[in-house]
Design goal:
There is one protein chain. The protein has 262 residues and is of the alpha+beta class. 21% of the residues lie in helices and 19% in strands. The longest helix is centred in the N-terminal third of the chain and has 17 residues. The protein starts with a strand and ends in a 24-residue tail after the last helix. The structure holds 2-oxoglutaric acid and fe (ii) ion.
């Protein structure tokens, strides 16, 4: 991605080494919340979302993330022993939709009282998360409810990959989606760039892949009659009235106290 200067407020990222990230302010227009950009291409110049997306480190949109994003579901499914012959299904899984979201968390002197991004699972197949070196991404440990939250590593250049709901459903829960949350920080602004990789909404139905159930040994763990295409899934699962997985521990309402990093 080209270097640049938007109204003198920020400088672009030219290097691919992740170091720039630590000194990299997000343009003011992106600081009111989140910006979402659909599609695989970088947004158009001049568009607000484009301006925000230009703040994205090169390699979020660059070959490393997109290669991973486009290949990982297929590889994971293969590990799940999907029938190798089903090329058509594999092609569909390759044809992922990539969406970018930028989270900007203002410094907060009282992080315990603030809401960052509440505990949730992503509806994507996979999510790729890059943070600006300020910790605050937390993952709920699988298993017992009382095991608590684990803070993701924050070394520059660390790319966190989450399994999302779509992959859990397609894989008939060979992979389970990750409950996670984003916290604000007491002393530093947090920025996270998330690329959500989703199955193509017009072609992939969110149901366990038939190949996994073909031999009759395994029962489908997800039933959605009538079988829903992705947009409906997103609608339903985005609803606060219908959490995607009752088996997942619910988000605790209390604010974590150990995350100030002050
Ligand atoms: O900001 C973070 O570290 C996580 C954000 C997140 O999980 C999301 O936007 O879906
Ligand atoms: Fe998320």
């Amino acid at each position: 991605m080209d270097g640049g200067n938007m109204d003198g407020r920020w400088r672009g990222v030219g290097d691919d080494d992740g170091d720039d990230l630590l000194q990299f302010p997000v343009p003011a227009e992106c600081q009111n919340g989140v910006s979402v950009q659909r599609g695989r291409r970088r947004p158009a110049e001049g568009h607000t979302l484009g301006r925000c997306a230009r703040a994205v480190p090169a390699w979020v949109w660059g070959p490393r993330a997109s290669t991973l994003a486009l290949r990982l579901p297929s590889l994971l499914i293969r590990f799940g022993r999907i029938n190798d012959q089903d090329k058509e299904q594999e092609e569909e899984l390759f044809d992922l939709l990539l969406k970018l979201k930028i989270n900007y968390y203002q410094v907060c002197p009282q992080p315990d009282l603030a809401v960052g991004v509440e505990a949730h699972t992503d509806v994507s197949a996979l999510s790729f998360i890059l943070i600006n070196g300020v910790p605050g991404l937390q993952v709920k440990r699988a298993g017992r409810d009382d095991e608590g939250w684990v803070t993701a590593r924050d070394e520059p250049g660390t790319l966190v990959v989450h399994v999302g709901d779509a992959l859990e459903i397609l894989s008939n829960r060979r992979y389970t989606s990750v409950l996670h949350r984003g916290l604000v920080n007491r002393v530093a602004t947090r920025v996270s760039w998330v690329v959500f990789a989703e199955p193509p909404p017009d072609r992939v139905l969110l149901q366990p892949l038939p190949e996994l159930l073909a031999d009759g040994q395994e029962q489908p763990r997800f039933h959605y009659p009538p079988r829903l295409p992705v947009p409906v899934h997103v609608l339903v699962f985005s609803s606060t009235t219908m959490p995607p997985k009752a088996r997942k521990p619910r988000a605790k309402k209390e604010r974590p106290s150990g995350m100030s990093n002050a």
